[in-house]
Amino acid sequence: MSLADTATLRTRVEETGLLWGLVGLVALLSLLPIGRLVVEGLAPGGQLSATALGKVLASPTTWTATWNSLVTAISGTVLAVLVGGSVALLATLTDIRARNAFTFCFVLPLMIAPQVTALAWLQLFGPSSTLLKLIGLAPPLGSRNPLYSREGIVLLLGLQYAPLVFLTLRAGLRALPKELIEAGLAAGAHPLMVLRTVVLPLMTPPLVAGIALCFVSCLGNFGIPAFLGIPGNFIVLPTLIYQRLAGLGPGVLSEVAILSLLIGVIAMAGILLQDFMMRRRDFRITTTSSAARPFELGGWRRPVEILLWSFAILVLALPFLGLLTTSLIPAFGVPLNAATATLANYAYVLIEHAASRRAFVNSFLMSAGAALLIVLICVPLGYFIVWKRSRALRLLNLAAELPYAMPGVVLAIAAILLFLKPLPVLNVSLYNTVWIIVFAYLARFLVLGLRPVVSGYLQIDRTLEEAAQVAGAGLPRRLVTVIFPLVAPAAVAGALLIFLTAFNELTVSALLWSSGAETLGVVVFSFEQGGDSTYASALATITVLVTVGLMLSTTLFAQRLPQGVLPWRD
């Protein structure tokens, strides 16, 4: 065998071994937990669990929670589409100024944990609102907080996920060829007619994708329904699962597995409906060009800018001020003034409260560790998906996206079922440890690291990698010395997105945490449920400041990133 044949054989062996290792990792993180959930929900012990299935399906609470979930998810999606779609059209197609700054502010709520959003809005309204008391507009004592209702949940879900619709539609609008718009204008059509007859029909794919993603996110959201629904006795499927598991423990795993499958079925129905709608028409664009020239608003530009920034301030600044003012008072309901203002709540959560200190360490280490491990997985995985295209690799890509497409509570139940018993051979249990949360983070956020890396590969000239291969460098060496430096900016951006998302999350860790394995989301939730709103507000304020600081830090390397990797940057 010649040296060339030997080198070729070695390359094939390296690629095959690495690929199968990645297949095993994706199967472990994506397919195994969902498979275990299906087995437990439908056939525990090898036989159909007719008792558990009948008990769940015969319970009126199940169908009440299901109906409430559908109503809030659909209504929240409609609100998100109206808000996010309108803002995307105005911010992308018109000549408004300070576009980057506005995009940052509008997308920011999406990067803040839902439970923090819910807490901030709760502190803004109600008779004990510190901010409203400060300006003399607080409702009378004894008044009910209007957010403790179905309408309150729908409002916050819509505002939380409007940026999702904004981002998906904005990406499509920026790729719209200018010839199509200019042809319509040249034919004498009014800009509104061009919008209705040209732009919106071509934007159906990103709009439908945003709707599907928004629906699944609203359906699986735990933080907002937990903060607003549980006090108002309004139960949805994620909070019903949490209450069943928290109140009765592992003995009801078969029942909560069935409830989780019910959420999964509804979510998959939404995704399949999206696919059906997209197959009915051909939306391909046969021309490409530079971005279209924005519509000139003329005398309407300043009013539109005032409207957009007023909305951003209403959605972002006012709730944060409500959160901040509540964190500065000694007890909930005490008015804020020079005599009562205090930093004692911050001292308590940062220094005195042991669970809060552990939560900071746990959330930082788990989020950073998951981000690092996912990058190490995604760099070689992206290499195969982009540069070794095949149907099998497309399926592998879809498998990696599955845990993110499913509601987080479904993944949490799947992880519990998978690790409730000690691991075979090793006889080590991950249940009630931080490691089960790390596993769930790896599975849940794998796609957040993969998408930026894939975008990075698509914009890389493969010449350098091929030259290294011709020179005899094996795949591991090429990945370390050639490929990783080229995709490093996109990989770092993906790691930052993972860290920001995992650092404050609650949906997964609410069901997986244990004593000593608390996360920031869990501690904020526990403070609020226990009536310690000032401590919850202080801790939530810190997490918001950390989130904003990390997002602003991306300006240091934003110019080196592929377009669209950071959702808050052009």
Structure report:
The protein is mainly α and 570 residues long. It has 24 helices and no strands. Helix 15 (344-352) packs across helix 24. The model has no long low-confidence stretch (mean pLDDT 81).
- The general outline is globular
Mean pLDDT: 81
What's the number of helices? 24
Share of helix, binned: over 70%
Report how far the terminal alpha carbons are from each other: 53 Å
Number of strands: 0
* Biggest sheet descriptor: none
List the secondary-structure elements in sequence, H or E.
HHHHHHHHHHHHHHHHHHHHHHHH
Please state roughly what percent of the residues sit in beta strands, choosing from under 5%, 5-15%, 15-25%, 25-35%, 35-45% or over 45%: under 5%
Q: Poorly predicted ranges (pLDDT <50, ≥5 residues)?
A: none
Structural class: mainly alpha
Radius of gyration: 25 Å
Give the SSE layout:
Elements: H1 3-42, H2 50-58, H3 60-93, H4 99-111, H5 114-124, H6 130-134, H7 150-174, H8 178-186, H9 191-202, H10 204-220, H11 223-229, H12 237-248, H13 253-279, H14 301-327, H15 344-352, H16 354-387, H17 391-405, H18 408-419, H19 434-458, H20 463-470, H21 475-503, H22 509-512, H23 520-529, H24 533-553
Helix pairs in contact: 1-13, 1-16, 1-17, 1-18, 2-13, 3-7, 3-10, 4-7, 4-14, 5-11, 5-14, 5-24, 7-10, 7-11, 8-9, 10-13, 12-13, 13-18, 14-24, 15-16, 15-24, 16-19, 16-21, 16-23, 17-19, 18-19, 19-21, 20-21, 23-24
